[in-house]
Design brief:
Elements: H1 8-25, H2 40-49, H3 51-75, H4 85-99, H5 102-111, H6 118-144, H7 151-177, H8 182-202
Helix pairs in contact: 1-3, 1-4, 1-5, 3-5, 3-8, 4-6, 5-6, 6-7, 6-8
Length: 206
């Protein structure tokens, strides 16, 4: 009996990884021990201290959400007739860049308002750049394996491949510049992903 959707296991596994990564993001947002707080003012100050961590959590959650939406949309462009090993491993690399994101998120939240934020911002953008590279590899396997469902689907895949190259280049450059201008790069990175979120919300299915 033929499996209705040969990609079902890949999609289910990927969805699970995305869900776990999203959940892990919130783990490092913790109120300091309540035994150290003796007044309402101190509690408010403790909550205020958490704002950078909350901001980076929202940014990373948005990144993973956008990545999941793109992954979901991309799966509709790929033929269910085959899943090459190259495709599966490239998908695994993409998931690696997703599950590792909670670490630089936590680091960025703790250091962004300090004078040593450079390495944290650089690492954060390096991980996002790696995600761009993962998209490039994944989309290359689709094109090389002629797995696009139709000519129109292949055109979309090639367009997305171009975006992948742009993303890898942009975030790699940002990772380097962040060593000298961490706060500026953190703001630019946030604005870029905010832009992609707006675009995604207003984009109709092809």
């Amino acid at each position: 009996m033929t499996e209705p959707n040969p990609h079902a296991r890949i999609e289910a596994f990927s969805d699970g990884v995305f869900a776990i990564a999203m959940t892990l993001l919130v783990i490092d947002i913790r109120i300091p021990g309540l035994e150290k707080i003796s007044s309402t003012h101190e509690l408010w100050m403790a909550l205020l201290h958490l704002l950078p961590s909350v901001a980076t959590f929202i940014l990373s959650f948005t990144i993973i959400l956008i990545t999941w939406v793109n992954h979901h949309s991309g799966s509709k462009l790929v033929s269910g007739s085959s899943s090459s090993h190259a495709f599966i491993y490239a998908n695994g690399f993409l998931l690696l860049t997703v599950v590792i994101l909670p670490f630089p998120t936590s680091l960025l939240g703790e250091t962004i308002l300090t004078d040593h934020a450079g390495p944290a911002v650089a690492l954060y953008n390096a991980v996002v750049a790696a995600q761009g590279l993962a998209w490039v590899l994944l989309l290359h396997t689709v094109i090389a394996g002629k797995q696009a469902k139709s000519e129109k689907a292949e055109q979309i895949v090639r367009r997305n491949l171009t975006y992948g190259y742009y993303a890898f280049t942009l975030y790699s450059f940002a990772a380097v510049i962040a060593l000298w201008f961490p706060v500026t790069i953190a703001i630019v990175t946030t604005l870029i992903w905010g832009f992609w979120l707006i675009i995604g919300i207003n984009t109709k299915e092809d």
